[in-house]
């Protein structure tokens, strides 16, 4: 069908792939593999949280919920190609759901609050996704940005219920009786346990059939439909998954800070999340981790820098964002595949495809 | 040959504004046959495919699949009904490996739910293994298994074309729609395609649209000739070849 030279040329272009090789990592089913990763990650978090000070533990937890939010966004943007500039809105929904539940239904255990927050933001995600399924590219980005700008403003509309600009403050007593660890350490554990459960589900999606269908929809909607994939439903599913992650992340943030306030959910948050995804590497869950780590590290570095230079508060407040912007520009110029793209090239050169990895 | 038709296009008319793309077109595709549609550029061949796939709604007439109208079906229903299609631009998923491209085509035979995949249930894992075996089988059959982990963009056109065919075949369709399967192929590749298509007749009917008249004459059991949206000839290759109107459409005044 093609000449031998052509075959060889194509094989070298494609990375010398031979037929008949056993599938990699065939030994363990995906679920087991992902759970092992999660357990390992949790062990690392427990170890780290036990040696650092409370302030750093808050940062460890912050990496956690940002990771979940960024990973959810990765499924949406990286897998189905839908760009959301409004993901902060789902964090907002999750945070306020948790705040309201803790305040008004104190009898509920905290895990139930989180579940309900996930469900409520999931509904918001389905509604957004249904509207978004007909929009493409910049139109979708614009519509979702409007959501991020508009939604937090409802706190001003119902100041008695939603606390206006000050938001809702509350305390959660989630630590089991008899367990004696510092609060921030416990909080980091709760955040990361939730986040890692979410990540296991996301990894199942990206490595399995649903992820493959999402990538198909991203690459060619007509071919996807001809293969029997319901294009609209797949896009909405991505929004649902993504919004649930965002809602959980928001709920965890509220849990961590003991408050849900509109100031935490500005459009800048949404843009920062998307930037974190790009920085880490679009379409990879590992990329979401690097992105979340970079966000928190840059924030911390910028704060120290501002402190060291004794900058005025109004300048210091914007320094992290400015530094983050510069880093983002540099990464996009130098490493279009993000941090994960760089890391993937270094060890062993083992992956040749552009899979979203678990 | 006289079994009930699998697919029937009956008296179908399509207009784009003032242009009549298909004018009262009827044809019947019988199981186990290769049916070719030929005609000069703009004769309405691809429009015919687009009507069958639900991309274009006819103003009159309808498409019947095993006696049932496809009017109320959406594009994504076709694969489930047993109809798959290749498109002219190939429409491969650029960000997915050859194997994943073909696995998407196997969608029709999935057994597990989306929820099962999310939770990584055993059924989903088994399902995935089954689909992968099926896809690898088709890759082997089309002699492209060596590229299973490559991205389509890195491959020669002939191989990419086979990937598109594999994606349509893996669904084990009862009707395979091929939009210009021979275009861009070398003479040798066309020969291989002819052999391949003849070998498909024991499992699926094939309806193909093609410019390569010589290839169509050799591979098809039945040929429909379109010109300016109208059927000008319909019958076995030797009958169509002898038809004066066909020669005229290709060589004469219509050119």
UniProtKB/TrEMBL annotation, chain A:
The UniProt record lists the keyword Isomerase: no
Localisation per UniProt entry: Cell membrane
One GO cellular component term: plasma membrane
Keyword line: Cell membrane, Membrane, Transmembrane, Transmembrane helix
Membrane topology type: Multi-pass membrane protein
Residue stretches spanning the membrane: 31-52, 58-76, 88-105, 111-132, 139-158, 186-205, 236-256, 268-298, 318-339
Any Pfam family: BPD_transp_2
MF annotations from Gene Ontology: branched-chain amino acid transmembrane transporter activity
The protein, known as: Branched-chain amino acid transport system permease protein LivM
UniProtKB/TrEMBL annotation, chain B:
Source organism superkingdom: Bacteria
One GO MF term: ATP hydrolysis activity
Any one GO CC term of the record: plasma membrane
InterPro entries documented for this protein: AAA+_ATPase, ABC_AA/LPS_Transport, ABC_transporter-like_ATP-bd, BCA_ABC_TP_C, P-loop_NTPase
SMART domains attached to this UniProt entry: AAA (SM00382)
Domain ABC transporter, residue spans: 7-253
Nucleotidyltransferase among keywords: no
Matching Pfam families: ABC_tran (PF00005), BCA_ABC_TP_C (PF12399)
PROSITE patterns linked: ABC_TRANSPORTER_2 (PS50893)
Keywords: ATP-binding, Nucleotide-binding, Transport
Protein name from the UniProt record: Branched-chain amino acid transport ATP-binding protein LivG
Species of provenance: Actinokineospora spheciospongiae
């Amino acid at each position: 069908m093609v000449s031998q030279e052509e075959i060889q040329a194509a094989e070298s272009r494609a990375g010398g792939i031979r037929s008949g090789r056993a599938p990699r990592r065939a030994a363990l089913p995906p679920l087991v593999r992902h759970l092992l990763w999660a357990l390992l990650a949790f062990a690392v978090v427990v170890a780290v949280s036990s040696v650092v000070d409370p302030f750093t533990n808050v940062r460890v937890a912050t990496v956690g919920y940002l990771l979940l939010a960024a990973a959810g966004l990765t499924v949406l943007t990286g897998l189905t190609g839908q760009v959301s500039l409004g993901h902060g809105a789902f964090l907002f929904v999750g945070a306020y759901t948790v705040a309201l539940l803790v305040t008004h239904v104190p009898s509920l255990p905290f895990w139930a609050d989180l579940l309900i927050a996930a469900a409520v933001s999931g509904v918001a995600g389905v509604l957004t996704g249904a509207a978004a399924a007909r929009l493409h590219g910049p139109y979708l980005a614009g519509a979702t940005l409007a959501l991020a700008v508009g939604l937090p403003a409802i706190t001003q509309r119902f100041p008695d219920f939603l606390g206006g600009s000050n938001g809702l403050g509350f305390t959660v007593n989630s630590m089991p009786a008899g367990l004696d660890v510092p609060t921030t350490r416990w909080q980091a554990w709760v955040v990361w346990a939730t986040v890692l459960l979410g990540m296991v589900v996301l990894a199942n999606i990206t490595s399995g059939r649903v992820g493959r269908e999402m990538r198909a929809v991203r690459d060619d909607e007509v071919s996807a439909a001809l293969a029997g994939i319901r294009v609209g439903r797949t896009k909405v599913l991505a929004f649902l998954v993504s919004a649930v992650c965002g809602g959980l992340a928001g709920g965890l943030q509220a849990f961590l800070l003991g408050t849900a306030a509109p100031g935490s959910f500005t459009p800048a948050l949404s843009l920062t999340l998307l930037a974190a995804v790009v920085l880490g590497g679009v379409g990879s869950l590992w990329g979401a981790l690097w992105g979340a780590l970079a966000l928190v590290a840059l924030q911390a570095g910028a704060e120290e820098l501002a402190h060291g230079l004794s900058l005025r508060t109004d300048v210091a407040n914007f320094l992290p964002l400015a530094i983050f912007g510069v880093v983002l520009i540099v990464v996009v110029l130098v490493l279009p595949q993000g941090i994960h793209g760089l890391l993937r090239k270094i060890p062993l050169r083992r992956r040749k495809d552009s899979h979203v990895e678990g | 040959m006289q079994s009930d038709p699998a697919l029937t296009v009956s008296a179908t008319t399509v207009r784009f504004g003032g242009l009549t793309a298909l004018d009262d077109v009827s044809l019947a595709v019988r199981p186990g046959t290769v049916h070719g549609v030929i005609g000069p550029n703009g004769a309405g061949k691809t429009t015919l495919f687009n009507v069958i796939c639900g991309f274009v709604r006819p103003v009159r007439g309808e498409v019947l699949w095993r006696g049932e109208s496809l009017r109320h079906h959406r594009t994504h229903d076709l694969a489930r009904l047993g109809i798959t299609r290749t498109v002219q631009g190939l429409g491969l998923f650029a960000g997915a490996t050859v194997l994943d491209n073909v696995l998407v085509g196997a969608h029709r035979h999935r057994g597990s739910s989306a929820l099962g995949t999310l939770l990584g249930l055993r059924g989903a894992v088994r399902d995935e293994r089954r689909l992968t075996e099926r896809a690898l089988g088709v890759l082997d059959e089309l002699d492209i298994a060596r590229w299973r982990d490559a991205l389509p963009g890195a491959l020669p056109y002939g191989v990419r074309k086979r990937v598109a065919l594999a994606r349509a075949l893996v669904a084990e369709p009862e009707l395979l729609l091929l939009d210009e399967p021979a275009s861009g192929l070398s003479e040798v590749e066309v020969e291989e395609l002819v052999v391949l298509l003849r070998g498909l007749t024991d499992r699926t009917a094939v309806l193909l649209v093609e410019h390569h008249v010589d290839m169509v004459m050799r591979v098809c059991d039945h040929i429909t000739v379109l010109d300016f949206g109208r059927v000008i000839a319909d019958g076995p290759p030797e009958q169509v070849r002898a038809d004066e109107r066909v020669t005229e459409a290709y060589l004469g005044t219509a050119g």
